[in-house]
Amino acid sequence: MKNLDGSSFILRPWSADDAEDLARYANNEKIAINLRDGFPHPYTLQDAKSWIKMVRENKKDLIYAIEVEGEAAGGIGLHGKEDVYRYNAEIGYWLAEKYWGRGIVTEAVRLLLGHGFGNYPWTRIYAGIFSNNVASMRVLEKCGFSREAVLKRSVKKQGAYLDEHVFSILKEDWKER
Ligand SMILES: CC(C)(COP(=O)(O)OP(=O)(O)OC[C@H]1O[C@@H](n2cnc3c(N)ncnc32)[C@H](O)[C@@H]1OP(=O)(O)O)[C@@H](O)C(=O)NCCC(=O)NCCS
């Protein structure tokens, strides 16, 4: 997996040395509430070590650390689907709160779309966003995704039922921008 360079960050593979940064930045309820329960809260050093081990053994998906100012400050990945969905990949991401609002994830998503559509057989990339996560929806809109479905009350997070908004982009609609 080669590094992908952004203007103020690098997308690069996770290393065992990232565990402390990961545990520090991922241990934030404002991040966890927007993600699936596999991203725990609180997020311990042991969670970080286990996750990095799992990612380093995963040869199927493209899972990058977002390195900002020399630290692993977030994650972004493309997860390939199987069977009749094998031309689909699901995108997911999160960033340390101190870097929110600087355009980092928007640029990272664009980089990964170019890399994914350019080098892999995927023809559709999609994401599922909980209904209260307006910032993430905005990121995807800025990258050319469109809302294709609302899966009503499909999510239960922290005791509340939420709709999930499915955003997607097809390869033929992807333009480097
Ligand atoms: C969502 C997240 C990844 C965004 O990362 P980021 O680097 O801050 O995003 P960007 O700076 O590239 O863009 C954020 C956009 O959302 C907008 N935004 C942020 N909060 C918003 C809010 N409450 N309402 C509306 N728009 C909002 C910003 O203004 C910006 O849009 P703009 O450029 O048009 O002004 C980051 O907040 C995060 O890690 N959140 C927690 C985890 C998460 O939600 N992951 C995605 C799960 S689907």
List the helices and strands and how they pair.
Blueprint: E1 4-5, E2 10-12, H1 19-26, H2 29-32, H3 45-57, E3 62-68, E4 71-80, E5 88-95, H4 104-119, E6 124-130, H5 134-142, E7 146-157, E8 160-170
Parallel strand pairs: 5-6
Antiparallel strand pairs: 1-2, 2-3, 3-4, 4-5, 6-8, 7-8
The protein binds coenzyme A (COA).
Coenzyme A binds at residues 31, 34-35, 93-95, 100-106, 127, 129, 133-136, 138-139.
Brief summary:
The chain has 177 residues and is an alpha+beta fold.
Number of strands: 8
Tell me the span between the first and last alpha carbons: 23 Å
Portion in helices? 25-40%
- The unreliable regions are none
List of distinct ligands in this structure = coenzyme A
Give the name of the CATH superfamily. Answer: Gcn5-related N-acetyltransferase (GNAT)
- Average predicted confidence as pLDDT: 97
Name of the level-1 CATH class: Alpha Beta
What would you call the structural class?
Answer: alpha+beta
The fraction of residues in strands falls at 25-35%
CATH topology: Aminopeptidase
H/E series, N to C? Answer: EEHHHEEEHEHEE
Shape field = globular
Note the main sheet: 8 strands, mixed
